[in-house]
């Protein structure tokens, strides 16, 4: 048996399975060909879960054998009412916990999303971490991604609107972000990207003002970002930490 543990003394009636068929069913390749895929899904669910896995099946006859087997192994319990993790049962015997993701956990997930240019997901993670400034910057970069994917000939107005909105969002975030939510290098990166976005949106004057405020070197970098990788059609200018 798993872990060398004996079967738990659980009866079918205690689990509400009286009358259900619990005997072994002979495997029939023609009738049970989907079993392999089902077991793959089960393996994924069990091995990926952080806290608990909940199985639900509306048919008592269908789920009784599997539920009974898990209960006998001491790996699960059958809940007929509200599901709660019970101290001394699930938390101790099954190695489960009620732990929640910390802000540091969400930051790490956000950084992973930024590295893969999944800015919408990164924005959600930063928001859960309590960093609204980085969340706004990621949302702006997601809009720049969306603009880059549009057909410039047929949807130019929509692309311009997305760049306009993203540019001013990045500008406002760089200027107004609290000190604990963004460092100087991040603000500079957001300003560079804001200048590039606004220039691409036809806001030449605003882009020039940002470039002038950053200096000539920053201005040249912003111009290069318009067409280069990592700018309007690529990932972030700099990964947020």
Based on the model shown, name its key terms.
241 residues; mainly alpha
Secondary structure blueprint with pairings:
Elements: H1 35-48, H2 60-73, H3 90-93, H4 103-115, H5 119-128, H6 132-149, H7 156-176, H8 184-200, H9 204-214, H10 216-227
Helix pairs in contact: 4-5, 5-6, 6-7, 7-8, 8-9, 8-10, 9-10
Description:
- With 241 residues, the protein is an all-alpha fold.
- The protein folds into two domains: 2-93, no CATH class; 103-227, no CATH class.
- It has ten helices and no strands.
- α8 (184-200) packs across α10 (216-227).
- The model is unreliable at 217-222 and 224-239 (pLDDT under 50).
- What about the largest sheet? none
Shape annotation: elongated
Q: Helix content range of the residues, please?
A: 55-70%
| Average of per-residue pLDDT values | 77
What is the tally of helical segments? 10
The number of distinct β-strands equals 0
- In percent terms, what proportion of residues is strand? under 5%
Write the H/E string, N to C: HHHHHHHHHH
Radius of gyration using CA atoms only:
27 Å
Instruction: State the secondary-structure class.
Output: mainly alpha
Runs in which pLDDT lies below 50 for 5 or more consecutive residues are 217-222, 224-239
N-end to C-end Cα span: 46 Å
- Overall domain count: 2
Protein name: UvrD-like helicase C-terminal domain-containing protein
InterPro entries: TRANK1 (IPR039904)
């Amino acid at each position: 048996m798993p872990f060398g543990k004996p079967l738990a003394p659980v009866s079918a009636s205690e689990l509400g399975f009286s009358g259900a068929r619990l005997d072994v069913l002979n495997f029939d390749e023609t009738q049970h060909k989907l079993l392999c895929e089902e077991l793959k899904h089960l393996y994924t669910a069990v091995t990926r879960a952080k806290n608990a896995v909940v199985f639900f099946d509306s048919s008592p006859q269908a789920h009784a054998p599997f539920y009974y087997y898990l209960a006998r192994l001491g790996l699960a319990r059958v809940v007929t009412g509200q599901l709660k993790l019970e101290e001394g049962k699930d938390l101790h015997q099954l190695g489960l916990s009620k732990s929640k993701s910390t802000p540091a956990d969400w930051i790490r997930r956000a950084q992973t999303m930024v590295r893969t240019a999944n800015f919408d997901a990164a924005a959600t993670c930063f928001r859960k971490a309590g960093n609204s400034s980085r969340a706004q910057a990621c949302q702006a970069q997601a809009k720049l991604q969306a603009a880059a994917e549009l057909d410039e000939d047929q949807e130019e107005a929509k692309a311009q609107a997305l760049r306009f909105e993203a540019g001013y969002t990045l500008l406002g975030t760089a200027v107004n972000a609290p000190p604990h939510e963004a460092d100087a290098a991040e603000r500079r990166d957001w300003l560079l990207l804001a200048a590039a976005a606004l220039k691409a949106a036809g806001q030449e004057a605003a882009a020039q003002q940002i470039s002038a405020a950053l200096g000539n070197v920053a201005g040249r970098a912003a111009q290069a970002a318009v067409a280069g990788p990592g700018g309007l059609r690529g990932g972030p200018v700099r990964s947020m930490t």
